């Protein structure tokens, strides 16, 4: 994908996050062999420069800073993009979170504007970081109680994800969507990634998720997939991941219950 006469323009949202950083690192490395133009949205450029100090001096990389609700910034990021990568999101169970809805609304508004005003505009493909919890085939392997605990402990960011995802999926005249649906995200070294449409393991490291994202984006053979799971090859180590998963479920349930109590009193 992408050659010197016809570079591939990739717009990236979420580049400063755990998944986004790995993706940007891989794409920068791929720029040597593939003709890729990266257009990166950030809300805080300083944070991106902490991770990639010389990124602004690189050829074919442009960085756009602003609010996610600022359609002009989002339009500049999306300008001429054939591929959009979105790894925006929130992991903590914070009531009212709407990062993904804001991102989806701005992306849709920008594409509507391009479609109406640019004769040569072409529909891009969006690779959206979603969750295995919302893939019926993947979730069917989970015990029902565990599935309920996970949905409840992350109820607020999941509500944001589901609303944003629905808006994007229904906008078929503006974009095609591939949902990347990983299991639990873990900050550890990679053990190799697995891309699978039938099942996922218990966990995926950010390293493996980022590498898989790049493979999915850069290999056109994957571009007809609507939803795909990504796991680490050694992502089934239950005893290794259980303490971290239980810790997150505990604090997520705590936030969910506290919100219910205060919401019912209000
Ligand atoms: N935790 C899990 O086990 C799990 C499992 C499956 C799927 N997921 C999904 O993974 C996603 C989180 O991925 P991650 O861990 O890579 O996220 P992350 O490290 O928290 O990064 C989130 C990104 O979103 C940006 N962002 C957050 N709020 C923003 C705002 N108001 N305006 C603009 N940008 C904003 C952050 O920018 P800054 O750097 O400036 O903050 C960062 O670039 C969630 O959507 C979740 O549903 C999580």
From TrEMBL:
Residues 14-216 form the NAD(P)-binding domain. GO terms for molecular function: oxidoreductase activity, acting on the CH-NH group of donors, NAD or NADP as acceptor. Belongs to the avfA family. This is NAD(P)-binding domain-containing protein. The lineage of its organism: Eukaryota, Fungi, Dikarya, Ascomycota, Pezizomycotina.
